[in-house]
Amino acid sequence: MEPPVVDPEHGLQVWRESLLRNQRRLWSLWSPRRQRLTLAGQFLGLQLVVVALVLAIVAAISVRQSTMTFSSERGSQMRSVAEYLANISVVRSEIDGPTPASALAPSISRALSLSGATEVTIADPKGVVLSSSDPRLVGRTIDLGDSRVREGRGWVGDVDDNGHQAVAGHAPILNDDGKLVGLSIAQQRYPSNWQRLTNAAPDLALFLGVGALLGVAGSLLLARLIKRRTRGLEPQEIATLADHREALLHSIREGVIAVGTDGKVTMVNDSARELLDLDAGVVGRPVADLALDPQVTELLTAGSDSQDAVVLVGARVLVFNQRSASSHGEGIGTVTTMRDRTELVSMQSQLSSNLSITDTLRAQTHEFANQLHTISGLVQLQEYDEVTALVGTLTRRRAEITDEVTSRIADPAVAALLIAKSSVAAEAGVSLTLSPDSRLPGLTSAESADLTTVVGNLVDNAIDACRTEPSPEVVVTTHVDASRLVLEVHDNGPGIPDGMRDAIFVRGFSTKPDVLGGRGIGLPLVQLICTQRGGSVTVDDEDGTTFRVELPLAGVPA
Predict the structure, then answer these.
(1) pLDDT-derived band at 360, boundaries 50, 70, 90
(2) Which of 320, 340, 360 lies at the terminal end of a domain, its last residue?
(3) Which residues does the UniProt record annotate as the domain Histidine kinase (predicted)?
(4) For 475-496, what is each residue's pLDDT tens digit?
């Protein structure tokens, strides 16, 4: 049996794939996702760093305090050793002898062993070493520095010992006559910083252990408390969630504004700033200080839920929805969304106009059908003279209505609307008249379109309001006063109910049953047109209801 053939290229490819897998596995172990610490880990690391810093400071203070203690205690002891050595009778008698080095050596050795000093020296009054625990110093001159031992006084201080700091005690050696015959010097080197840290290590280790234990326990408790408050989210997750929330709020077309229980703005997105014409620095300011429309201010500070509240803000029709916000069952304020429905209202106006035209055509069709039925009956009865008389009467009546309107209203669209509305009023049993002093010049196409919308809505409302009266009547008056168009529509209906004067301009408000196209959009639309054109609309409910509209006109002489 032949051995299998091994493909070198295949083996190399397998080796490469294995190497790549191992590299990816190692990289995953060190990836930022794996290295990211939890909240408890971050607190633990922070507290351990704090504990380490505190221990470092404590260690430095301990070294400093140990140095001061060593200088005080050992300095006093070195002075005592020097004084003890200076008072030994053998020292005082042998210091002037022929061989002081060997004669004084036993006393120096005994003082060295009893005191723990690193060096004991006896010198003559000039500072020349006569005998020392370090034989190399014999014959050398000691630098006494600021020591006052030559004056017969003991001294304690720091000296340099071959590059090492040491604490030394000096004492004068006096003979029986009180004359200075020598100097007794005992000194001990300061321990190194490492030695001092080693001596303090047990206490530092105890402090470190207790601090680390308290740090771990405190970190876990604090992390658990914070995670409970943050609903179990880690800091990175909270930051990501906040970034997503911020991006979402500023990307949606609807305006969003949040108000706290103290009446201050806590959050607002770009769309809300645009819709309410707010500055960039409104967050943290009270709503009452933002110079908003009074209705908007009242809605934002009400603190109660509301749905589809319509407010006219400048030239915009805004729809507000408000919900209360809470955290752990405690109210924290409200969140209000707003949408611009100006275009929708305009479309509803067009639909309402189309429906009005449909009603007008239906009324005229009904009127003409009745007249045709009468003519048909007269023809069947062969009353041709009556037919002629009826047709003449109808023609004259229509011509009179047309002449009455067109002689005072120069704008064709408005004139045609009033003529058509007369048929609607007649069908409803309402008398629609144009006051004799009414005058209206020709208008631009935009002005004519807006005015027909205003007239159509006000006349429709007036007809509906007074049709149940014994002698219902609607009077339309229009004239130009100082480049401003003044329009008044009066009806002898029951008037506006008490407390509803402001509500009639709110979209959706109506005292009539709902029909196709919606109710309660006519008067808000009239107010919107007046606001957009810089005009006004007012209402007077004395002796019925009178709506007065004032609109500025372009190119009309005063």
Answers:
(1) low
(2) 340
(3) 363-555
(4) 999 998 878 899 999 999 888 8
- Residues whose CB is less than 8 angstroms from the CB of residue 128 and which lie 6 or more positions away in sequence, other chains included: 139, 140, 141, 142
Distance CA 190, CA 66 (A): 10
If asked whether residues 360 and 414 sit together in one domain, one would say yes
Position 474 confidence tier, pLDDT thresholds 50, 70, 90: very high
Average pLDDT over residues 464-480: 90
Which structure tokens are listed for 40? 């408890």
Cβ(507)–Cβ(489) under 8 Å?
A: no
Q: Does residue 365 share a domain with residue 435?
A: yes
HEC readout, 414-425: HHHHHHHHHHHH
Same domain for 336 and 362? no
Q: Are residues 209 and 264 in the same domain?
A: no
CB 308 within 8 A of CB 338: no
Distance CA 275, CA 339 (A): 8
558 pLDDT exceeds 70? no
Q: Say whether pLDDT at 106 is over 90.
A: no
30 part of a folded domain = no
Q: Is a pLDDT exceeding 70 seen at residue 350?
A: no
| Judgement on whether residues 232 and 374 belong to the same structural domain of the protein | no
135 occurs within a structural domain: yes
Helix runs in 407-512, H state only = 412-427, 445-466
**Which pLDDT band holds residue 303 (cuts at 50, 70, 90)?**
confident
> 46-87: per-residue pLDDT in tens?
777 877 787 778 777 777 777 787 777 888 888 888 888 888
Tell me whether residue 231 is in a domain. yes
Split into its structural domains, the chain has a count of 3
Q: Which residue has the higher pLDDT, 358 or 481?
A: 481
Q: Would you call 153 exposed, middle or buried from its count of C-beta atoms within 10 A (0-12, 13-18, 19+)?
A: exposed
CATH code for the domain of 464:
3.30.565.10
Phi, psi of 225 (to 5 degrees): -65, -45
Q: What does the alpha-carbon distance between residue 269 and residue 250 come to, in Å, rounded to a whole number?
A: 5
Q: Please, which residues bridge with residue 167 across strands?
A: 158, 188
Same structural domain for residues 312 and 448?
Answer: no
Q: Helix %, strand %, coil % for the chain, to 5?
A: 50, 20, 25
Of the three residues 177, 202, 236, the one that is the final residue of a domain is: 236
pLDDT, residue 500, reads 67
Residue 12 lies in a domain: no
The pLDDT of residue 200 is above 50: yes
CATH of the domain at 200: 3.30.450.20
Q: What is the distance between the terminal CA atoms of the chain, rounded to a whole angstrom?
A: 119
Report how far residue 465's alpha carbon sits from residue 454's, in angstroms, rounded to the nearest whole number: 16
Task: Give residue 507's domain range.
Answer: 344-552
Do 160 and 68 have their domain in common?
A: yes
Are 401 and 437 part of one and the same domain? yes
What pLDDT sits at residue 325?
A: 83
pLDDT digits (tens, 9 = 90+) for 222-247: 777 777 776 667 667 777 777 777 77
DSSP 142: P
